[in-house]
Amino acid sequence: MDYISTRGEAPVLSFSDALLAGLARDGGLYVPREWPQFTKREIRALRGKSYQDIAFTVLSPFVGDEIAPEKFRAMIDEAYATFRHPAVVPLVQTGPNSFILELFHGTTLAFKDVAMQLLARLMDHALEKNGARATIVGATSGDTGGAAIDAFAGRSRTDVFILFPEGKVSPVQQRQMTTTAAENVHALAVKGNFDDCQNLVKAMFNDGAFRDRVRLSGVNSINWARIMAQIVYYFTSALALGAPDRKVSYTVPTGNFGDIFAGYAAKRMGLPIGRLVIATNENDILARTLRTGRYEMKSVKATTSPSMDIQISSNFERLLFETSGRDAAGVRAAMAGLKQSGSFEIEPGTLKAIRRDFRAARASEKQVAETIRTTLADAGYLADPHTAIGLFVAKKFEKPDSPMVTLSTAHPAKFPAAVRKASGVDPGLPVWLGDLMERPERFDILDNDIRSVETHIGGLTRAGRN
Ligand SMILES: Cc1ncc(COP(=O)(O)O)c(C=O)c1O
Ligand SMILES: N[C@@H](CCOP(=O)(O)O)C(=O)O
Fold this sequence. Notes:
Its cofactor is pyridoxal 5'-phosphate. By secondary structure, this protein is α/β, with parallel strands linked by helices.
């Protein structure tokens, strides 16, 4: 499978090259040249299979012949052996046709582990094959960073640098990034917000000299392999609920648009998905965009769902590309508008196509707290604030005769203060993380300035020195 950039001006790459490239050289995001197709019969044949079996079948066409099948299967098995639930991502029923898909049974208690555990193994394999090392950078609003640090800790071919907004992640999220003993991973607190961190990461990719010198690679969902791995749980959950013989809808707590774009990809591959519902917090840029057709940035507000405190929703670019009939020039113009004025208008045809598949709504801080409380009282289920946003929004779009799955993107113990305040219940950390808050921290604080960040990373990385 080849990969093309949403901006149409970067080289077409193979799977391994797109994996190591992260962001395309024209600033765009890589997508597969075509969507692999699964017939209803092929989907039906996956019923009753394990998560790992389904992952292997669904992901193999994206990888093609670049990795030997038995090697790829071993990576999948190893990646999902780190999960602490036999189903990897179990479904929990909370109403006649309402379900929660728990994506937080991995090592850092967030959905990011699903993709990151596989990504680390894929990258190791590609680097080993090339005899190379890489400098991996990532921006996090809390969860991507912890998952990346856990998945890459101690790996010999990568030095990892995670930028997080100083003081704007939960204490548990911060400790998951700052308490590792592994020498190849570095947590960097940036004086700014998540969008600043993400802009710094993109600026490093767009600085060709720096990019080449340190052999830069990325672990955010700008990297196609992150999205790819997330497609699998749409297949496993839809199959468990009767797919392909009935449609299943999904509500997804959304920030960077990676998780819900994976649902869109699954639909494009033939999985019969009904609605894809975007659920946002008070940073509701995506809900406003679907309503007005205008993507318009405002200042970011700190909420109890910090991982979704985002204005620049990177993967929306992938959706624009797909729904505009892969109009790379149109995407370039939209992204230039966003850079210059913080906004762009969506073409009427593109907006219509987006509205065909997607719905969107937001939850206020009050509604999030109320949902945590009522979900516990009515269904006996303790949700984290991000999941609660999904549950609140899902209610608006549920239909009695068809299943609605809300993605549970984090364990409540990652956000104890908000959960305790809303429900009166203290969501304790699992035993294996019991001493997290006592472990010594190690991190550097940096200005929101590309030169300082590049100098810092350039001085520490071991990639590009041989
Ligand atoms: C707990 C949690 N929920 C939801 C999201 C939003 O996911 P996405 O950025 O893929 O839209 C994030 C961050 O990505 C997250 O960490
Ligand atoms: N919410 C994310 C933000 C980064 O998203 P990504 O999926 O693009 O890595 C986080 O928790 O870091």
